[in-house]
Amino acid sequence: MEFIELAKARRSATNFQTNIKITVNELRDIFEAVKNHPSSYNLQTTHYYVVTSEEKKAKVKEASFGQHKTYSASATIIVCGNKEGYKEAPHLYEGMKILGIIDECEYNRTIELINNLFENNPKFVEEDNIRNACLSAMLFMLSAKDKGWDTCPMHVQNAEEIKKIYGIPEHHQPILMIPIGKMTTHNIRPRGYRKPVGEFVHFID
């Protein structure tokens, strides 16, 4: 699918066909594209938690105040940001140093800069996690559509209960919920009004 066609074809599913299964391998294929998403300092702090079982999805639906699409979807995914992701910087940059892409001095400066930005700065960490997760999630939804799957980005309701259901550790911050499956084909609403480019792009002389 050409990119412009893909961008137009992706839309938020209002509901999903029931009893449509998605395999781990199919999900892995979708995520293969997602690993290329941009992230600040290439820290790749976004994590995905996936449930496909009927039992787990029923619990997610209950915790999400009865939103049916969280259950009818083939899988319901929580997108999280790692509050301690900056601590992985030495490991992530080590390969570049070994390959000679950066020298020891640049390596040390980069690690120091990252630590100064993120350490003891929870507000910045939270905001950065949101930025990175949204970039990653958009690529996930486009990749899913390219493979023939539909998605719907949602708020994470009742986050503490959701964390228990998914076994999400304390240092992972839930940011988005994304059910994925095959959208129901009846009663599809027309796409809502889309602003023309002139209404949201501002060219500055």
Short account of what is shown:
The chain is of the alpha+beta class. It has 9 helices and 4 strands; from the N terminus they run ααβααβαααβαβα. The chain is globular and about 60 Å long.
How much of the sequence lies in strands comes to: 5-15%
| Helix content range | 40-55%
Average pLDDT, all residues: 97
Strands ordered across the widest β-sheet: 1-2-4-3
Overall number of strands: 4
Shape: globular
Order of helices and strands: HHEHHEHHHEHEH
What Rg is obtained from the alpha carbons, in whole angstroms? 19 Å
Low-confidence segments: none
Helix/strand-derived category reads: alpha+beta
CATH architecture: 3-Layer(aba) Sandwich
Please write the CATH class name. Alpha Beta
The major sheet is characterized as:
4 strands, antiparallel
Distance between the termini: 36 Å
- In DSSP terms (H or I, runs of 4 or more residues), the helix count works out at 9
CATH-level-4 superfamily name = NADH Oxidase
Count of domains: 1
CATH-defined topology: NADH Oxidase
Topology (SSEs and partners):
Layout: H1 3-9, H2 24-34, E1 46-51, H3 54-63, H4 69-72, E2 75-82, H5 89-98, H6 104-118, H7 122-146, E3 150-151, H8 159-166, E4 172-181, H9 197-200
Antiparallel strand pairs: 1-2, 2-4, 3-4
Helix pairs in contact: 2-7, 3-8, 5-6
